[in-house]
Amino acid sequence: MPSRQQGGWRARVACWAVLCLLLWLPAAAVLAAAQPGPPPLRDYAVDAWTTRNGLLHNSVRDMAQTAEGYLWFATWEGVVRYNGVEFTAYNRGSTPGLRDNGVGALYLDPNRRLWLSDSRGNLGRLGDDGAWHYLERAPEWPRALVHDMAIDGQGRMWLLFEGHGLGCVHPDGRLDYIAPPPGIPLRASFQRMAIDAAGDIWIGTLEGLVRYTADGKWQRYGRADGFPQGLVWPYLAPDGTLWLAAGEQVFRRRPDGRFRLAHALPGAGYFTSMLQDREGQLWLGTENRGVARIGPRGLEWLPPESLTNGRIASLLEDAEGGIWIGANGGLFRLRETLFTSWTRRDGLGGDYVRAVLEDDAGTLWVGGSGGLDRLGADGRFHAVALPGGNAQVPSILSLAQGRDGDLWAGTFADGVFRLRQGRVVAHYGPAEGVPSGHVRVIAVCEDGRVWIGTRRGVVVIDEAGAQPVPDAPQGLVTALAAIGGELWIGSVEGASVRRADGRVERIPLEDAGGDPRTVFGFHLVGGAVWAASDRGLYRIRDGRLARVGMEQGLPVDAVFHLLADDAGDAWITSNRGVLRVPLAALEAAADGSGARLPLQHYTEIDGLPSSQGNGSSSPSALRRRDGSIWVATAAGAASVAPARLDRYAHRPPPPPVIEAVSADGRALDWRSTSSLPGGARLAVTYAGLSYLLPERIRYRTRLEGLDEDWIERGTRRDVEFIGLPPGSYTLDVQAAHPGGEWSAEPARWSFEVQPLWWQRTSVRAAGLLAALLLLYGAYRYRVHRYQASNRRLAAQVEARTADLQAQARQLLEIDRERAGLLEQLREQAEAYARQAREDALTGLPNRRQFDEHLARDIALARRGAHPLCLALLDIDHFKRINDTRSHAVGDQVLREVGQVLQGERRGSDLVARLGGEEFALLMPDTLLEEAQLACDNLQEAIRRHRPWAGDEELQVTFSLGLVALRPGEGMEDLYRRADAALYQAKHAGRDRLQIG
C-alpha cells in the first residue's frame, strides 16, 4: 500500500496538471486562431472503410507507409495494401502469399523496408520483387503472436512475443530468445515496445512498465515510480521523445531520464495508441472513448459519432499529414478540409441556409428555413425572435443593412422585418404595401431608400412608406443591386437597370449568347458589373456585353454569386459546388481568349455541408472583413479562411506508381519482363499515391517510341496499347492534383516489342530472295522458249526468214526488258538499304545509323581516352505548328531544320533525326566547351533562318541537352543524361541549351 504522503503528492500533481491544462486551453485557442495551422477537429472530414470496402477484417492492428507511398494495414485475416482507391489483399490464399493470416505488427526499418509478424511467430519482409521473404525460426522461438518489433542502433531486430519474452535477430541472421526472469510481467505484455537512443528497450505490460537495458538488465516500474496501477506502455515519437501512457495519464521523459506527468484526461479510460504528428500535436486513442488530440487548441475530442465504439488499436500520420485510425470497428482517416461547416450543431435554427450577411459592427447574420440567427462571441449561433409572422419560425430568404444600421430581413411568406439591435421595430406586409411571399432580395441605395424584390416586382420603402416601382419587371424578382446610383434588377424575365433619372432599361443579355432566362445576382468587380444567371456569367462594361459559360470551362450552367478575394481569385457558387478561378482568367475568357478556365471545383469532399448552393436569395455568399468567404448551402453555411486555403492548396504532387501490366488479358510480372510478343494488347494500370483527394488525381502518359508528347488521361488509372510496332519503348506516367504541378519523377517501365513472324528481317529477306528466284525462273523460262524457237527457226530458216527476223527483234526486246528489270531490282535493293539507315523526310541518318556511329565512337573514345559529346535537340512547340499550320508545314519545317543542321555541322560531327521533332548531334574528339560553342552556333543559325516553310511569321526554335561522355559510361547512360538535360531545358523555358 502506498503511504498517505505518496497519495497526497500524486493528488497534488494531478490537480496542478488539470489546472494548468484548463488555464492553457483559452490561451492556446487564441494562439491557434492567430496563427495558421491545423484546423480544429470539428473541421476534419472522417472517411471510413470496413470489410464492405475491401478490408480483410474490421480490426486494424497496425499500419505503415512504405517509401513509394503505399499504405499497409495489418488485420487478423492478412495484410492489405492501399493506393487511395482500392485495397490489395495479401493472405495465405494470395499470390504472393503469407504464412499466416493473423498479422501482429508492421514495421519499417531504417532502409524503409516493410516487415510483418504473425500469430505463429513468423517474421517476414517485403522484397523489391513484390514477394514476402521469411526468416526461418530458431527451435527455441515460441510459436506465438509477435506483438511488436523494433531495430536498435546496432541493427538488431527485437521482437515482443505475446505471453513469452523477447526475440532478437542479429544482423548476421542469428536468432536469440530471451525469457523474462521471475518478477518481470512480460507474459502480460501489451502490444507496444520502444527502443531509446541508449539502446534500452521499454516494454508495456498490463502490470506496469518493463525496461531491458542495453547491458542485459531488467527493471520494473509501477506505483512506486508515480505510475498508476495496471497498464503502462511506451511510445517513441519521431523527435526521439519517449512518452508513457498509464491509465488516464500521459508521462513524458525529461532529459534527466525521469518521467514527468504531461497530461491527465479524467474519464478517458485506458489509452491504447498514441501519435505525435508533424505539427507536434499529440493524438491519443482510447479503449472506448475514441480519439483525442492535444495541441495549440488544447484538448479536443473527435465527435463521438465520427467513429465506431471500441478500441483504437493504431494511429498513423501519412506523408501528406492525414491521420489514420485503426480501430476494432474498421479503418478511419481524418483529412483536413478547406471549408468549415456551420449547421444545427453550431446553433443554427435550420440547416437550409438562404442568406449570410456581415453588418457594420462585424456581426454575422444567417437566414434560412430555421429563421434568423446571429453568430455570438462564443462561436455559436443564437436565434433572433421574429414575432408577427404567419409561421412559427419565418423562413428568411434575404438580408440587408440600411444606412442607419438597421437590419432588413425578407421572408418566404411573412413579408419584411426591420430590426434594430436585434429587435423587430417594423414589419411590412400586404397591409403596408409589400406583396406577400418570396421576398428574395433587398437592396439599399446611397440615399437610404430600401428596395424590396417581391413576386410581383420591385417595391421601394422610404419615409413615405412602401410603394411599387413603375416600369420595373412585374414578375418574380431574383436579384437587386445598388451600384453607382443605379438599381440593377434581375428576374425570371432577364436583367434590367433603373437609371438615376428613374428610367428602366432592359439589358439584352441574350445578345452575348446563351439565351439566359433568370438572373440571380449582380456584382461589381474591377469596374465591370457581372451578372450571374442560369446560363453562366455575363460581364457588362462600358455598355458592352460578354459571356463566360460552359463553353469556356464552367462545369455548370446556373451560377448564383460571384465574389472577389484579396488574392485575385473569383469565388462562384452554384448548385454543384463552389468554383474558384483567377479573376484575370475570367476577364480573359470574357475577352474571347479561347483558353479554358483554370478553375478549382469544391464539393462536399472539400468540407462543404452540401454542394447545392442557394440562388434566388440574397446575399447567398459574402466576403467578411477578415477575408474569409461564407457560402449559403442547402445543408448549412460554409466558410473558408485564406490561411487554410494556402495550407490546403499547396500540396506536393502525388508520386506515381505502375501497379499492374497485362498482355492479351494475362497478368505480367512487369518488374522482370522487358520483352513482349508482337501484336499483343497491352494494358497498364497505374496510380498516384495520394490520400487527400485520390478521386481527383489527374494522370498523363507518354510512350517514348510512339508518342511525341504527353497525353492527358484525366482521372483514368489505366491505358491500353494495341498492335504496337516492333521496337523499344518506355512508358512514363505522371500524376498531379487538380490545378497542381505534375510529379517530377515519372513512374517508368521500359520494354521491347518483338516483331511478328512476317515482320522479322529474316522473313523479309527470305521473301525478297523468293521474289528474285521467281524472277530468275521466269527469265529461265523465257530463255528456254527462245532456244526452242531458234531450233524451230533453224529447221524453217529458208521458208520463214521474215518470221525469224521478227522473232529476233522480239527476243532483243525481251532482253532489254530483262536488263531493265534487273536494274530496277538493283535500285530497289539500294533504296531498301538507304531506308534502313536514312530518314525519309530529311535525308539525315536515322536512329539506327546514329546508334551504330555512337556505339563505335564510344568504343574509340574509351580505347584512346578521347573526349566525346552528345547533344539531343528538340523543336519547341512543334505540335502547335502541326495543329495551327498543318502537318505539311510541319514536315517542311523538319526538312529545313535538317538542312540547317547539316549545313552548320562541323566536318567530324554527325547529325541525325531520331524521330518526330527530335534530332541528335554526335561530336567525337570534342571537349564540352567546344561542343557548347558548336551548339550555340547551331541555335544561332536556326534563329537566323527565315522564312520557315515560306511563312515569314513562323518562328522556330529548339532546346538542347548537351552531355560529355564519362569514364566507364555506356550508350544508354549517355542517352539518359542527355535526355534529362533536354527535359530541364524545356521546363526552364525552351530555346536554350542545358548541360547535363
From TrEMBL:
Membrane as UniProt keyword: no
InterPro entries, A to Z: Diguanylate_Cyclase (IPR050469), GGDEF_dom (IPR000160), Ig-like_fold (IPR013783), Nucleotide_cyclase (IPR029787), Reg_prop (IPR011110), Rev_trsase/Diguanyl_cyclase (IPR043128), WD40/YVTN_repeat-like_dom_sf (IPR015943), Y_Y_Y (IPR011123)
GO BP field: cell adhesion involved in single-species biofilm formation; negative regulation of bacterial-type flagellum-dependent cell motility
Pfam families: GGDEF, Reg_prop, Y_Y_Y
DNA damage among keywords: no
PROSITE patterns registered for this protein in UniProt: GGDEF (PS50887)
Cofactor(s) listed in the protein's UniProt record: Mg(2+)
GO function term, MF aspect, one: diguanylate cyclase activity
Coiled coil: 794-842
Keywords recorded for this protein, A-Z: Coiled coil, Signal
Top-level taxonomic group: Bacteria
The protein's name in its UniProt record: diguanylate cyclase
